[in-house]
Write a structure and sequence with these properties.
single chain; mainly alpha; two-stranded antiparallel ribbon; 36 helices; Ipi1_N; nucleus; ARM-type_fold; Testis-expressed protein 10 homolog
Length: about 900
């Protein structure tokens, strides 16, 4: 009972009140207070009129643009989604230039949101930017607005992009780089025109002014470090450096296109580092002026090898940027273990930054190459990118100390893990590191060897390191890009006569690699250009006979001479593959190089070997003379003229190309045919001694065979047909005909007459004027000529034929005409005159009797040739007159002729 009473007392205790205190309200009192809440509608509910484009929520473009300025990030994101929906469904209407609320209004509004504090808003802006730019880009196959982003619109976007790149928050800066990439992908030309502000802002992302006060140089920069950065310093700098490199790459491509579209252009205004409205001149260096510097300073990843521009406004930027880039290199180097005993091991981040630094410096030097300034004020400047000598003066010491102190560099290789996914990931990262490592080392070789185009620079320790590394590179499998860099390195070294002899082992390794490449491959073409340059430049040949010394710029080096000789001997086999694949440009290069070799002061034994190998390679009937490239034909004709051995089969091929097919022969122009005949004539003069009878009678059996083939070739040109056609037109009989009248065929096809007259003229003149003078002192009292051999060929061929073609008759007329001049010491025999009179008499009877249909044009031309020949050659006229006087019809014909 006591316990129950105590509990009841606790439940109903009396509250003690104090004086001045208010009584508390009871628990059962009703609370009459209330609160109100506001409902806000972010979207207006309205009905579309069907004329304007709206979203599925019936919001037009003006409503969405207005909501982009809302204070709520959710509303802004929804507005951007609505704009994206409108663009995807109605982009054709929004692209119309007359539409006031078209794509221009959207891009301007999106530009203002680049500096939005919310990342989700910025990402939506960048995604929508990419969609719109893809449609506006001139690269788009459906785009018809190639300049839709120019003018004030791009200036508006450019302004806010620069603001985003200069923002205090790192996230906004990184997002600005994404838009920078999108603009560079779609509108590179517009981005290049705004290079000044963009490049300075890119450099400003990783650096800050180092001066304090007004006395220091305002261009001096130092690396900036953000302790609150979400990214490691190396990764952040790599992102920025990648954009700088891409900008220079696009600028270089733009200059390359401009150069090839108009090679004579010397003024362009693509690069502006200040106000884009103030165009600054950039001079394109002509090819002749830029040869010794043409392959300088290219990174390992680009393909432009022979183009250098001169934007003078870049000099100030380069002066500011190179110290920053060198500081980036030093910062990347500071994270490496300095106690490495062998090759320095680079982590992936440091390796990427160092590779980007090297490539950017190379690209800047390429774009900054200029000629010597004439302005007196400019001459006082310490910084002038005018020549390799100035580059050596400004940068060689710093580059040698910073870049080459621990060359070559090696990437870190991570241990493989047991799990398959991680193992593959590690393996892929290792392969990427090795590729970047090779690119970095080759870029450094390229950069440093570019300085050695200064012919006054002597080899140093860094050059020997490069030599040893290049030798090791050839033991690896080289990609196309790396091969180009290696070739550039060796080419630049060869430009310096002081350093070329130190790289003989590298040139020998390059030649071995070149010879191992099969067929017509890109690798073979790359290394072909190296040895082609070396062979054109080298003048250290040893002369077999006494003569004038060549212009000397290299010391005599038998090792280099042997390398060039081996390269020349490989050209005929390469020519066979190139001709087979129909590569006309490369074919022309090889022919030009062979002509250079055979005409320069090279070894006579090498020239003879090359000529024989080329003769075994050529195929005129297959591809060479059939190509439309006039330059290839000219180089081939020149090679023939300097003494390449022409076999009977090759001469037959040339003959077929001149004659067949009749309607449209392979060689169509008469001038080309005549030029080829002259080259074949010069060819035999190079191969066979035709200066005096003593040497002529001492010629070898091979030379005798070559001369015999040459005479048969000239005779085939004279008769107007190849042997197969002659047998069809005029089949030979078994016995010799005694009749004085022959049958003449006057059927001529197409342009056959004019072509044959030109050929007959050249051949007849050559046969009449080729003779060996008499040498009474040495027992040769008579002048020797080849007319006797030609007479024998005529008799052997036509004495047993009763039918001739009018083209053969014209050739005979040309031969009598050319040999009738007084300066020709050897005349045709009386027996041959008798044969000629029979042919001409038969032709006259056929013309004047008109027993067969003859074209009036052909008839008139034959009569003209007959009159010209008979008026010139009185002996032939006498023989013909005797034949015509034998009958009345002949006398009438003779009367008409006289």
């Amino acid at each position: 009972m006591a316990k129950s009473k105590k509990k009841r007392q606790q439940d109903f205790q009396k509250v003690k009140l104090k004086v001045g205190k208010k009584l508390p309200k009871g628990d059962n009192v009703t609370n009459l207070s209330f609160k109100t809440r506001q409902i806000k509608f972010t979207q207006k509910i309205k009905v579309s009129d069907g004329k304007t484009a709206v979203t599925r929520n019936n919001l037009g473009i003006l409503d969405l643009l207005r909501q982009c300025d809302h204070h709520s990030s959710t509303v802004r994101v929804n507005a951007l989604c609505g704009l994206k929906e409108l663009w995807l469904n109605h982009h054709v209407d929004l692209l119309v230039s007359s539409n006031v609320n078209g794509y221009a209004s959207i891009l301007k509004k999106l530009s203002t949101l680049l500096i939005d504090n919310e990342s989700v808003v910025r990402h939506s802006v960048i995604n929508l930017f990419k969609l719109i730019l893809a449609k506006l880009s001139p690269k788009s196959p459906t785009s018809q607005h190639t300049h839709s982003l120019g003018g004030s619109l791009f200036t508006y976007i450019h302004t806010y992009l620069c603001c985003a790149m200069n923002h205090i928050h790192e996230d906004i800066k990184l997002d600005a780089l994404l838009l920078f990439d999108a603009l560079l992908d779609t509108f590179p030309a517009l981005m290049i025109q705004q290079t000044g502000d963009l490049l300075k802002n890119l450099v400003g992302l990783i650096s800050a002014p180092a001066y304090i006060g007004s006395k220091a140089c305002p261009t001096t920069q130092k690396l900036s470090l953000n302790p609150d950065s979400k990214l490691p310093a190396m990764k952040y700098r790599a992102k920025v450096l990648q954009r700088i490199k891409r900008t220079f790459m696009e600028a270089l491509k733009d200059e390359f296109k401009n150069h090839h579209s108009n090679p004579e252009t010397v003024i362009c205004s693509k690069w502006c580092l200040t106000n884009p409205k103030q165009k600054q001149n950039s001079r394109l260096v002509p090819k002749q002026a830029e040869r010794k510097f043409s392959t300088l300073f290219f990174g390992g990843s680009h393909e432009l090898d022979d183009y250098i521009t001169n934007p003078s406004s870049l000099e100030t930027f380069v002066k500011m940027a190179i110290p920053v880039l060198l500081q980036c290199w030093k910062e990347a180097w500071a994270s490496i273990d300095e106690h490495s005993t062998s090759d320095v091991l680079l982590p992936a981040d440091s390796l990427e930054v160092m590779s980007l630094v090297t490539s950017i410096i190379q690209l800047m030097f390429v774009l900054c190459f200029t000629s010597q300034k004439s302005d007196e004020a400019a001459r006082d400047l310490k910084f002038q990118m005018v020549s390799p000598e100035m580059l050596v003066m400004n940068y060689l010491q710093d580059f040698d100390k910073i870049f080459m102190s621990s060359f070559p560099y090696t990437a870190q290789v991570f241990p493989e893990l047991s799990r398959k996914r991680k193992k593959n990931k590690i393996l892929q990262q290792t392969n990427n590191n090795e590729s970047t490592q090779l690119s970095l080392n080759l870029s450094l070789c390229d950069l440093m060897c570019g300085l050695y185009t200064d012919v006054t620079l002597r080899p140093g320790k860094s050059l020997f390191k490069i030599r040893d590394y290049i030798q090791r590179v050839f033991k690896k499998s080289l990609s196309t890009e790396n091969s180009k860099v290696v070739v550039r390195v060796l080419t630049n070294v060869f430009c310096n006569p002081h350093s070329a002899s130190y790289f003989v082992s590298c040139y020998r390794a390059a030649l071995k690699h070149y010879l191992s490449c099969s067929g017509e491959t890109s690798h073979k073409n790359i290394f072909y250009k190296l040895f082609s340059f070396m062979s054109r430049t080298w003048d250290g040949w040893e002369m077999e006979t006494a003569g004038p010394q060549p212009v000397h710029s290299y010391e005599r080096n038998k090792d280099i001479q042997a390398i060039i000789t081996d390269f020349y001997e490989s050209l005929p086999s390469l020519l066979r593959d190139v001709i087979k694949n129909g590569n006309q440009e490369w074919t022309l290069e090889i022919f030009t190089l062979l002509n250079h070799c055979c005409t320069q002061n090279c070894l006579a034994s090498l020239r003879k070997s090359l000529m024989n190998k080329v003769s075994e390679t050529l195929d005129f009937q297959g591809t060479l003379l059939k190509c439309d490239n006039q330059h290839i034909q000219n180089q081939l004709f020149f090679l023939i003229s300097i003494g390449i051995p022409l076999s009977r089969d090759l001469l037959k091929q040339i003959l077929y190309c001149m004659r067949r097919p009749v309607e449209k022969p392979v060689l169509q122009q008469h001038s080309v045919v005549s030029h080829l005949i002259y080259c074949v004539i010069l060819n035999i003069r190079e191969l066979v001694p035709l200066k005096d009878q003593v040497e002529f009678n001492q010629m070898s059996q091979l030379q005798h065979s070559q001369l015999s083939d040459h005479l048969r070739f000239l005779f085939s040109l004279q008769i107007g047909f190849v042997s197969e056609e002659l047998e069809v037109i005029s089949p030979a009989d078994s016995v010799q005909h005694k009749t004085d009248i022959l049958c003449v065929d006057f059927e001529v096809q197409g342009d056959q007459w004019a072509r044959h007259v030109a050929i007959a003229q050249v051949v007849a003149k050559e046969l009449a004027n080729t003779f060996l003078p008499a040498c009474p002192d040495k027992g040769y009292v008579q002048v020797f000529s080849f007319l006797g051999n030609i007479e024998q060929l005529w008799k052997q061929t036509f004495m047993t034929r009763s039918k001739l073609h009018v083209l053969t008759v014209v050739s005979l007329l040309k031969l009598f005409y050319e040999t009738s001049f007084q300066h020709v010491p050897v005349k045709l025999s009386a027996e041959f005159y008798d044969f000629g009179s029979i042919v001409l008499t038969s032709t006259m009877f056929a013309l004047f009797n008109k027993e067969q249909p003859i074209s009036q044009d052909v008839s008139q031309q034959v009569k003209s040739e007959l009159s010209l020949c008979l008026n010139q050659d009185k002996v032939l006229f006498t023989h013909v007159s005797e034949k015509l006087h034998k009958n009345v019809e002949g006398s009438r014909i003779l009367f008409m002729l006289t």
